[in-house]
């Protein structure tokens, strides 16, 4: 009897060991077997991570291809603000390219309305399924960004759909302040900076940036028979729109460029006059001054010939100059 029990016990032991062996082969991770609800949560988490990475990559790619200087500047921001900066710049790029990417003003206005609605939905925690929108929502939640600045950028871009030249330099400055300066205010918020002197500097830098961008875009716009330079300055120097469309390099055209570039330089100097009163943590938001200064120096070297071929090439030293300025903590 004892021997029978012993034999059965041995057989049971053998069967158990074989069963466990097979179980290990068939389910090598049997210890991780999860309930259906747990599997769903795991899949949702994985999908969410993949989607988040896709959204971030989309913003990186669009900023790198459309705003390379802004892309490099963003890389030099503190890690905590870097991703939000790229989201804000991607938002700015999306708005900036509407004017050139539509054939009818009505379509452009519809796209602007989409972004107005998107911003409202972001602040209701219900962003549309779109990469830039998702990244903007993430930035808003993280840094408590001000909605007014985003809406101001959209509204000003919407007005710009009129597709006409600026009547005077003040109108160009107002456009630059409402678009470029507003973007800088948002960048300051992403850096956790709330300072009146930093805001004043941002206002002047934004105006300088808008003016420089208008000058840089002149050869491209002229090739499409469009001129956006302030009419009052063109009239002052008796330079017609046709002069720019023909790519004239006469002295009166250079005088127009000189006056406009000089105003950008004045704004840069004003912005730098606040540097001693601004917290160092705000300086990374102003790295774009390196790019503005570089263009103003180069246009001066070619005697304000805005159509000079050298101005159409990107300065390969800009990334290094940006890094040095970032390291020195100046702007």
Automatic annotation (TrEMBL):
State the compartments where it is located.
Mitochondrion inner membrane
Keyword Membrane carried by entry? yes
Q: Which GO terms describe its cellular component?
A: mitochondrial inner membrane
- The primary location reported for this protein is mitochondrion
Q: Does the keyword Transit peptide apply?
A: yes
Name a biological process GO annotation: mitochondrial respiratory chain complex I assembly
Q: Pfam families from the xrefs?
A: SQS_PSY
Provide this UniProt record's keywords sorted from A to Z: Membrane, Mitochondrion, Mitochondrion inner membrane, Transit peptide
Question: Which PANTHER family does the record match to this protein?
Answer: NADH DEHYDROGENASE (UBIQUINONE) COMPLEX I, ASSEMBLY FACTOR 6, PTHR21181
UniProt lists the family membership as follows:
Belongs to the NDUFAF6 family.
Explain the purpose of this protein.
Involved in the assembly of mitochondrial NADH:ubiquinone oxidoreductase complex (complex I) at early stages. May play a role in the biogenesis of complex I subunit MT-ND1.
Q: Give the protein's recorded name.
A: NADH dehydrogenase (ubiquinone) complex I, assembly factor 6
Q: Which organism is it from?
A: Oncorhynchus tshawytscha
